[in-house]
Amino acid sequence: MVFKAEVRVELKRGILDAEANTVQNSLQLLGFKGIGEVKTAKIFVIDVSAPTKEKAQEEVEEACKRLLANPVINNYSITIK
């Protein structure tokens, strides 16, 4: 069975997000007064062939640990559909 995994990778709290800071400042300069905190995130959409949803979750979890996220600076979440 083929499952679709969505992995969202974000910086941990306290890690400088320079890109988000630049975007936030630029939005304010452009007159967007209601814009609050801005954060960046990467989203990976991955097709996973596995016999069960649980096995697909395990496979994607391993991919996150080994490549997609740096545990020192990133948090990640996985959604399997």
TrEMBL record:
Signal peptide region: none
PANTHER family: PHOSPHORIBOSYLFORMYLGLYCINAMIDINE SYNTHASE SUBUNIT PURS
Family, per entry: Belongs to the PurS family.
Catalytic EC class: ligase
Name listed for the protein in its UniProt record: Phosphoribosylformylglycinamidine synthase subunit PurS
Pathway stated in the Swiss-Prot or TrEMBL entry: Purine metabolism; IMP biosynthesis via de novo pathway; 5-amino-1-(5-phospho-D-ribosyl)imidazole from N(2)-formyl-N(1)-(5-phospho-D-ribosyl)glycinamide: step 1/2
GO cellular component: cytoplasm
Keywords assigned: ATP-binding, Cytoplasm, Ligase, Nucleotide-binding, Purine biosynthesis
UniProt GO MF annotations: ATP binding; phosphoribosylformylglycinamidine synthase activity
Assembly behavior: Part of the FGAM synthase complex composed of 1 PurL, 1 PurQ and 2 PurS subunits.
Function: Part of the phosphoribosylformylglycinamidine synthase complex involved in the purines biosynthetic pathway. Catalyzes the ATP-dependent conversion of formylglycinamide ribonucleotide (FGAR) and glutamine to yield formylglycinamidine ribonucleotide (FGAM) and glutamate. The FGAM synthase complex is composed of three subunits. PurQ produces an ammonia molecule by converting glutamine to glutamate. PurL transfers the ammonia molecule to FGAR to form FGAM in an ATP-dependent manner.
InterPro entries noted in UniProt: PurS (IPR003850), PurS-like_sf (IPR036604)
GO BP terms: 'de novo' IMP biosynthetic process
SUPFAM superfamilies, per the entry: PurS-like
Gene3D superfamilies: Phosphoribosylformylglycinamidine synthase subunit PurS (3.30.1280.10)
Entry superkingdom: Archaea
Catalytic reaction(s) noted: N(2)-formyl-N(1)-(5-phospho-beta-D-ribosyl)glycinamide + L-glutamine + ATP + H2O = 2-formamido-N(1)-(5-O-phospho-beta-D-ribosyl)acetamidine + L-glutamate + ADP + phosphate + H(+)
